[in-house]
Amino acid sequence: MNLLTIKNLYANAGEKEILKGLNLEINKGEIHVIMGPNGAGKSTLANIILDNPQYNVIKGNIEFDGENINKLKTDERAKKGIFMSFQTPEEVPGISVTNFLKTAQSSRTGEPVKIFKFKKELEENMKKLDMNPSYSTRDLNVGFSGGEKKKNEILQMLTLNPKLAILDETDSGLDVDAIRTVSKGINMYKNDDNAVLIITHSTKILNDLKVDKVHILVDGKIVKTGDANLAEQIEEEGYAKYI
Amino acid sequence: MKADLTKYENNKIKNIYNIKNHENYSYKTIGLTEDVIKDISKKKNESSWVLELRLMALKKFYELQMPTWGPDLSELDMSQIATYVKPKTNMQRTWDDVPDEIKSTFDALGIPEAEKTSLAGVGAQYDSEIVYHSIKDELVKQGVIYTDFDEAVKKYPDLVKQYFMKCVPVTDHKFVALHYAVWSGGSFVYVPKGVNVDIPLQSYFRLNAPGAGQFEHTLIIVDEGASLQFIEGCSAPKYNEINLHAGCVELFVKENAFLRYSTIENWSKNMMNLNTKRVIVSENGKIEWVTGSFGSKISMLYPMSVLNGKNAKCEFTGISFAGRGQNLDTGLKIVHNAQNTSSVVDSKSISKDGGVCTFRSNVLIKPKAKHSKLTVDCESLMLDSESRSDTIPTNTIETDDVQYSHEAKIGKISDEAIFYLMSRGISEAEAKAMIVRGFANPISKALPLEYAVEMNNLINIELEGSIG
Amino acid sequence: MKEYILNSSPVRTSENYGINDIKLNLDIPQYKYFDNFSIYTEELNKIEVDIIESDVGQLKKLRSNIGLEFENYSKIVIRIPENSTIEKPIVLDYLFDEDNNNLIDNIEIYLEKNSKASFILHYCNELENENFHHLKQVTVLGENAIADITIANLINNNSKSFIAVENELKDGAFLTHRLIEIGGEYKISNYYSKMLGDNSTNELKSIYLGTDNDIIDINYNIEVLGKNAKCNIESQGALTGCSSKSFKGTIDFKKGASKAEGIENENCMILSNKAKSKSLPMLLCHEEDVNGEHGISSGKLDENMIFYIMTKGISYDDAKRLIVKANFNGIIKSINNIELENEIYSVIEKYI
What we know:
Chain A is an alpha/beta fold. Chain A has 7 helices and 12 strands.
């Protein structure tokens, strides 16, 4: 079953043209990986899928779950089931992790959150992600270490349970143990009805995951698609032959 | 740059600023009446439109109120001020033609020397009139005009009329009205489209006569895509009477043009410095203000930048140093009046020996100024508890789409820093001086080397004690 | 209607900047008895309360630093005796309605040496009628006294609210003062503190919300005289609609206030392109050995933050509400009274 289809996408960051005719198809139950050199447009793609106002689509279509979402706002896309783990999550002083997730959860479902059940699930998820439960009462991302911020993104993914999770450089700057925890989180989340799109520089995060497709993104276009072996090949040889 | 000037050297520098020539004027008016103004206009051989303007301005001067805020100006008695003092020479094109006594003053101030090594043109005013003006031939060939204001009115009346009083209106405040009633001297600069004046021009204003006023008018137009660096210097020897400076600077920075306007002000401590400076910046233009205020008894000076075109930019870097008997009420005004305009303000002040420093600003972001950005930083250093340091910034924001932040700090030199330096064998006085110079460093860095040295010398003199 | 020039700043700047004073056309209503009022405290035996109602002119004129003057008003004096601690907050509750629509009150609080107490002054109404409220609240803190005072102005937006606070701190006194300014089409507030005591501390925390055509004029002035005294002004605000706000905040370090510290921060969220924000954060300093800082920030909400929140499925308007509430949260939480907290949030949500 097709989940995300991007057709001939051109997009800008400010005035600068970044994506130049990108095509991508992701089916339910799949894990996709996008790799590519700096400045190729990897993060732009993630931000465009969620309509970050700092980027704009010039032409092309984004379809999600059989529906064109070009005109939808960020929150509407999120409500459809798209999630993005941020490269540098925003610090929001004055609002706790729990309250934030409760608000997000109830705006997705349109129903009030059952507090007891919600808290219990949150605690369990935090435990599995090796997060200190005290983080749930702390202000969102404020004073979190790089690793804690990333884990917090994965925690949000588990709580909100989207159809498509886009992980933008979630592994960057993390040590081996933290990367393993993130992979664990992805495996907890993953099932046959949802999909994952991982944007990364390195293959470490892929070791514990069953990757279906690897795409090489160069200069705003996907230049090569292959299976998990392609990632290993890139790890050894770099991008030179695709540039 | 030499960091530790000896006392002897400091005294030498003090004496340079304090050179008093005999009063050697050929003509002088005292006070402010219609007759005095007619007299000045006649002596200057002016066209009737100029006289009419002066008389209108005088009327405005009497109509307008004294400021109801800021330093006490009650010591100023306009009927005692020498409103026009004509030196015993006409404007000269070579220093050799300038009378010896006047020339030796400018020699001591290092003006002719700087002209040879690092300036593209020089104007020198002595009391009410310009006594010397020069500009490099290459610039003349490119169409650059740099001359004294009287000559500009006569030779380029259309250009002058198009811009004169268009930036600073006569009704702006009482001392602008005074200025327009009695203005004399000053420089006129026109940089044609696309011409870059890389080496600075400098105008130096010297007030010699006791009890006199200086009212020079500076008008600079940097046309589309052109650029200019302009330096203004001023000083006077110390007298017991009140001297008055009410100059006016009108600047126009056109589309894609650039102007850096630097001022090192070291008026003597009997001067009331009630000066007005303003720039109008068009699309993609940029103004940079660099100012060092050291002298005067009272200063009220708030250079204003009107960012009228899209993407116009303003950078302001300034320092004030108030010692004994000084009240320096300085700051700036900025109006953001177009999209994407931005300004960065870095202001510092130092108060010592009972000196009063006030940073006063007014920032206005108009509804049109979407996506504008403004950062204001001011820092004040108190060197003792006899002194005062006040920060009075007004900010008005009339659009939601703006990034604005203002930060201010007041404090003393950290004891730990002094201890640290002293532990390396530096004396306490020198440690303090080093820290103060470090504090002033961002302004020094924005000045050409010679002027940075001059500023550091002034800081050394100020730190050592009050002048004469 | 008469024109009043009110809430003048302690140091003048150019009239052209339009922030020295606020000019308002006002009808000052006649004095009226206000009976919808209660005091709650669980330890009435430990405190002295004196209620004086004056329509017979037995009190002298009430003058406030806002610049208004009243012949008749109601006065409450609360005294906390030496060494006594009142655990639960003393709540003064005023409910405006059609009969009680005009309140001129003067509340004086005296905390004697080593005493400790907290107070909530709560002004609200259920109806949409027009009200007039002028409060002058004076506090004197003796040596090492600790007070926590919250003034919550939650009256409706057809009303006019004037709140003038004055206080004096002796050695070692610690005062926390919160001003929650939500209600009233005019919200005019004045805060004047004299920190006489060495080692005294003053924490002033305020919240303001401007909607529709609200006019907000804030004038805080803290004079620091004591050695090693510490003061902190934190003001969080949001403006929507065509509301306008002037914030004048002054920290004045007097000579002798060595090792004193003063910090002032104002953050104004401008949520509409018709709202206007003026600010004048003054630092006056006549003492070398002090640390003074102020910061002002203004502008629209951080786009990156809004985007981050929206990616979690929260709408733009909800994200905006969330950020405004988050910015107010620190101050509201610090009241430490869950009922009042919820009430403040529900009033805020009504407006934005």
